[in-house]
Structure formats: structure tokens, C-alpha cells
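FAQ: What does a multi-protein file look like?

Like this. Sequence, then C-alpha cells, then the next protein.
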Amino acid sequence: MSNEKFMTIDCSQYTLDKYERRAQFSDRFQNDRTSLDQLRYGFFGEVGGLLAAVKKANRDSFAPNEKEMALEELGDALWYLAALSRRTEQSFAAVGEEAIHRLKQELHISENSKPIGEITFDEIDGLLAFQTKKLPEPKDILLYKLAYHSGTFFWKYDESSDLVSASNIDTLSNLLASLALVAAKFGLKLSEIALANNLKTESRWAPAGAQYTPLFDQNSAVHEQLPRQFEIEFIERTVNGKKNVVQQLKGVNIGDPLTDNRQDGDDYRFHDVFHLAYVAHLGWSPVIRALMKLKRKSEPQIDENQDGARAIIIEEGIATWIFNHARGRNYYENVESGKLEYGLLKQVQNMVSGYEVDQCPLWQWEQAILSGFDVFRKLRKEKCGVVSVDMIQHKIEFKPLGVKK
């Protein structure tokens, strides 16, 4: 989700318990010692990422601004903190309550009473709302302190230590208070950070009951809609000693014959299967619209901006870039759903920013990419076949040539 869209969402009264419950679905770690180590590493890594982001923002002319980078890095650190809290006998809300107590001490605020009811991020943010200019240390010092507190997960640790011990609960609350102080120095609220992180993880890993994005052309004229179910035949031929692939829809050639356009050959001639996967899982493909002559001409703005040449170039660029990434990774043969590299998906999302498909969460892109490569691997093995596309069931499947429905 873009920062502009996110900032229109009301984050007030967002409770720590609600954040923790939404974050839990994306927690794939176990409750063993190894997982605890991995969570510690993860938290430490996110703090390191924040420090690196600050460096890049000051070093590079066109790096994202500090506030934008801090929103994501602090959100990821908060996720690991909630995951670590989940493995104690204390709720994340209890950690939050102790963090409030520590912040009051840090800010020299008299503590008249304990919070009543569910602990909200607003209660933490509220302590800092009028204290931003009075925070005890400058931003760099607060970052150093955050890094120091993060290290306590390691230098206090030994084989006999118990995460549930009082000292570790103290560490968790210290870290949450430290995150809040750093966030305030970046002009951010923990409530904003928490909600943005929930939205990020739910885009990456589909929560229970998640629905596919509605089809973008569902309100377009019927004759300008992508067909909801169809089959494309991929037929390999050799012409003048060069292999090419012809695609046919109901016996009619679609587009021009494709070659690998690469000296050493890598079967890229079958790459239109990726565009078909985008149709099935995203309801989007300017390339297939152009090939099928289904551009939305009756809607001039959509025709120009969503189905035009620039959108086609971007889609082809995405397909080529992902293909080059996959080529050195066995074309994603052993990649399970939920395991595709996050950075790859994030880059794709950035590339389609401003186009209708940027409404699709990252988990839809992952399904499109993995299913597309599944069919691609079968095509490159058989050298021909039928690819069926189902936009209603969000499926793309391979069948040997000659096998019909």
C-alpha cells in the first residue's frame, strides 16, 4: 500500500492486542530455542536495517526519505518484538503497559494511575505528542540506545536463560519504549507504524478469508472484457534452424512467433505463459489485451493509461526481470507459496505503482509468479502444450497438446 493511501486510514485507538492478533497469522516460527534465536536475529537485523536506511538517506541523492524508511523498518522491528512477546507468559499489552511506565520515568512524567482497559498505541504516542522537542537525547543517541538494547537479546543470553524471566520482560518493554522514542524523533506514531506493518504482512501473506481483488474490467463493456476462461496452444516449430513458438486461440495465431532472443537459449520463447498467469491471478495483462484486441476503447482514459504502450512495456519488463531472477534459481521449482523473496515482490509492486494492478496484494503476485513458472517448466520440458486460464477460479494449468476439456 502506498504511503498516500495509508495515511488516509484512521489509526486512533489501535490496541496492542489487536495488532498482535493480526500479526500472529504471519508468524511461521516455532516455540523452540532455535526459533527464539531466529526472532532475536530478526529484531536485531531490523534495527540494523533502520541504521543503514538512515545512512543511505543521508548518503544517496535519490534514496527514500528517512521517515518513509523508518515507517517500514520500525514496523518490522515491532513485528519481531510482538512475536518474542508471544512466546512469553505476558501479553503484548502487558509489555506495552510496562513500556508506558518506563517512558513516564524517562520523560519525568508523574504517574498518577495505570492505564484502564485495553492498552492502545495512542497511550504511548500521547506521552510523546507534546514532548518531541523535549526528548532527552537527539535522534542519533536514541538510535544508539535502541541498538544497545537490541544487543541485550544476545549478551545476556545463555543456554539456561528463560525468555519468560523478569529480566527478559524488562528487555521487551525497554525495546518497545525505545522504538516509541525513535519513532517520535522521525515524526511517526507507533499507531501508524503498527497498522502499516499489519497491512504490509497481510499483503504479503493472505490472512484467513482473504479475497482476490475484483476483476478490473468487470464493469467494462462485455466485448472489451478478458475472457473468463480460455485455452492457448503453445506450438514449437523450427524454421531455418531456429526454434520459435506459435500461440493459437481456437486455431487462430495470437501474436508473432517468438524466439529466445538470446544466443545461448533459455526457452524464453514460452514466456507469454507468464502474462497468462497475470490474467488468471491478477485479472490484468495489457500484453494479452493487445494480443486479443481487447483494449478498453470505449473508456478513453483507461485505454490510454491502463492498456496503452507504457503499461505493455512495464509488464514485459516485469516478466523479463523476474525470468532473469528465476533462471539462476531453477525457475522457482522448489519455492513454496509464502516463500518467494519479499524484495522481488516489493520491486514488482513499485514498478506497477499508479496502474490499476497496484491494488493487488503481494500474495496475488506470488501466486501469479509461482503458478506461471510451474506451467513454464512443463512447457519447456514438453516443448508444446495447452495452457488453460480460469479468471474465476484463479487457475492456470498445463495439458499435453491434443487434450481438450
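And here is the next protein:
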Amino acid sequence: MTFTTIGYEIRDGVAQLTLNRPDKMNAINATLHDELQTALAQASGDSTVRVLLVTGAGDRAFCAGLDLHARGEDSAMDPGRLQERSIHPERTLVARFVGFEKPLVAAVNGAATGAGLAFALSADIVLAADTARFGTAHVHLGLPVLDMLGYLLPRRVSAGAAAEMAFTGRLVGADEALRIGLADRVLPLDRLKMEASALCAAIAAQAPLSLRFSKLALRRAGRDSYEDYARFERYIFGVAYGSEDAKEAIRARREKRAPQFKGF
């Protein structure tokens, strides 16, 4: 499929998804919304993809949220789409990011606001340029915090930090984002995507089943009781230990070579 508002390419197990409306700060119109949905579905179902890297084009913005200037069929907020989101909240774009089952890395190259902030916080690892800014401006529009940020923010930062961002709508710079936990690493803008690609390559070199199970395990932290988590851990260990990739890892270690994982 040919995309017009995103870039999507796969190389050595890494799918890179680039929001590509730099003149609009990569804000979400109807086309970008639908193409992101398609790309996420492709990356999820493609067995050659082991990790997804999400970033934005240009150096101004990762994603500035919804394009509030889009109208009619160009708007991602038309009545039909709103009705679909009300009936099937699990199909929303942010929900697709949150529910993505493979490792997800965000390289935040500029402003990440509204839904753009939600995309970033849906990632397992957030790398930020030193020029990045994070925030939600819903309060300035007379709206409550949306885009699942009421769910995502308190899982990244303290309750007080989440409340301050939601109640004031102020933007958080890269250094503060690192300090409060919005970002995991801050890098110079000109090194951001290179470092993100290197990180994704290191992740993609691992066994796919191990990656998926590790992501599931990390996502259950703080949700399961100790007993439920222990049962889950025993289950994923049993499945993974019996996999061909686990056997290949042992063979490779004995033979002092790099393992060749196949995903089963």
C-alpha cells in the first residue's frame, strides 16, 4: 500500500513508522488517522517485524495531536468516526498503540501534545530530543483529559505530576520529562533517530517470543497480585523454554556464535 501522510519501512526486523505532515506539525487529519491504523495492523500481523519505531518528520513536532483546522472529510473528528469510537473504544487509534503486542519505541523529535503525547506514552521506551516538549492542552479547550492520557500519564509519572499537566495544560521540556519519567533518555536532536535505530536493532536481534512475553509481563506489573503474576510467569517460562528459539539460544551459546532466531 502507498501511504501519503506516513512513512513506513521495514529493515532487519525493525518497522519504522514516521508521521509525515511536518508542515502541520504532524497533526492528525482523517488520512493520517486511517494510515496509522493500517500501518499498525500491518506491523502487528507481519512476522518479520520484531519491533516498531515511531517518530515524526521534521524537527518541530513528533505529533501535535488532532488537526483542529481540518474540516469535513479531512477531519478525524467527523460524526461517523466519533460514533465508531463511542461504540468500539478498543478500536481507537490510541488504543491500537496501547495494545500493540510487540516492543514499541518512540523517538520524540519535537512537540508531543494531545494524542501525540498518548502515542509517545504508549511506547515501551521513550527517547526524546533535547528540543522535545510534552503536554496536553485539553483543559484549554474546555475538555477533560482525553486520548487515554488519564490512563497513561499516571503510569509514567507521579499522580501529582499527571494532575498538574492535566489541570494546567503546560508544556514539559525534555530535561523535566526525563526527571519525572515521561522520557527514558534525552539526546541531541541530530543523534535521536540514529540512537533510536541502534536501540531497535538491538531489540530486533532477540527472540520474538521472548520479546512478546516480556512485554506482557511488564504490562501486568502493578495490576496482578503476586500470586497471579507468579502463575503467569510460570506459564510464559514453560512456553518459551520449549520453543525452538530457546533451543537455538542454547546451541548458539555452546557453539560461541550469534543465535539465529526464527520466531517460534
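Q: Is there any per-entry metadata?
A: Some entries carry free-text notes. For the entry above: The mean pLDDT is 92.
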